[in-house]
Design a protein that fits this description.
Elements: H1 4-14, E1 19-24, H2 31-43, E2 48-51, H3 61-71, E3 76-78, E4 92-98, H4 104-120, E5 124-132, H5 140-145, H6 155-167, E6 172-176, H7 187-195, E7 201-204, H8 210-219, E8 223-226, H9 228-232, H10 236-245
Parallel strand pairs: 1-2, 1-8, 2-3, 3-4, 4-5, 5-6, 6-7, 7-8
The structure holds SN-glycerol-1-phosphate (1GP).
SN-glycerol-1-phosphate (1GP) binds next to strand 8 and helix 9.
């Protein structure tokens, strides 16, 4: 099916089910680490792997994804920090436009330059309104994107940005405080955004505890992304996955 992943995301949302995505930065894992993560994620019933990073220096994106794909059935979705992070071995790609910023390169410029390559990859392309929210300190994404994040307490700006993204036709909204953010996005902001859009809402950046993941879902997040905290303590995969999947179904 052409839109298999997106159909699944929308169906999950309609059914009121919350999902957990483990973020893997190819620069930070070797084969042994991938093997461990895949084992833990499979046991914990993780829903997705997101693969990517603001800066991917190493040259083993393909290898990393192939290893994941040969060891489990968890879908792999590219979360690219740059147009070079495309691998045909993944299942899909978040086609990110940085709608919170005013850097034309990340709104449309790099998309034009990489359009042929992305289309020819054969991947399922999911257009995503990417919103960076201030996480209390500069993160790799705020630096690399050369764009001002949405202030953490400006819930109305976040709401209007997400609404505009949806009306422009974006199929997902991703609110991100940035990898390793000191302060993750508040439930108030998540609630405000979730109430005003229909498309699935992804939330990530600085989530380090199962309780926070649970509260974010209760506030309206459909998919929670965790990277950094898991790199430090892989046992969190099970705790966070259980918390997310224990959120009562609300439709
Ligand atoms: C970053 O949303 C992701 O883009 C995940 O953030 O690494 O802080 O979990 P963390």
């Amino acid at each position: 099916m052409k839109n298999k992943l997106y159909t699944q995301l929308v169906d999950q949302k309609k059914a009121g089910k919350k999902s957990f995505a483990v973020l893997i930065d190819p620069d930070k894992v070797d084969n042994a680490a991938i093997e461990q993560l895949v084992g833990l994620a499979t046991d914990a019933k993780v829903d997705y792997f997101f693969v990517g990073g603001s800066l991917v220096i190493s040259n083993h994106l393909d290898e990393c994804i192939r290893q994941i794909k040969t060891s489990c059935n968890i879908p792999v979705i590219l979360f690219p920090g740059s147009p070079s992070q495309v691998s045909r071995y993944a299942d899909g790609l978040l086609y990110l436009s940085l709608i919170s910023g005013r850097n034309p390169e990340l709104l449309i410029g790099q998309h034009v330059l990489s359009a042929t390559q992305v289309k020819n990859s054969g991947l399922e392309i999911i257009s995503t309104g990417y919103m960076v929210v201030d996480g209390g300190a500069p993160t790799a994404v705020t630096y690399i994107s050369n764009a001002t994040p949405i202030p953490a307490d400006k819930n109305d700006i976040a709401m209007c940005t997400a609404m505009a993204g949806e009306m422009l036709g974006m199929k997902l909204i991703y609110m991100d405080a940035g990898s390793g953010a000191k302060r993750p996005i508040t439930e108030l902001m998540i609630e405000k955004v979730a109430e005003n859009i229909e498309v699935p809402l992804i939330v990530g950046g600085g989530i380090t505890h199962p309780e926070k993941a649970y509260l974010n879902c209760k506030a309206g997040a459909d998919i929670i992304v965790v990277g950094n905290a898991i790199e430090k303590d892989a046992s969190l995969i099970k705790e966070i996955s259980d918390a997310i999947h224990s959120v009562p179904v609300t439709i």
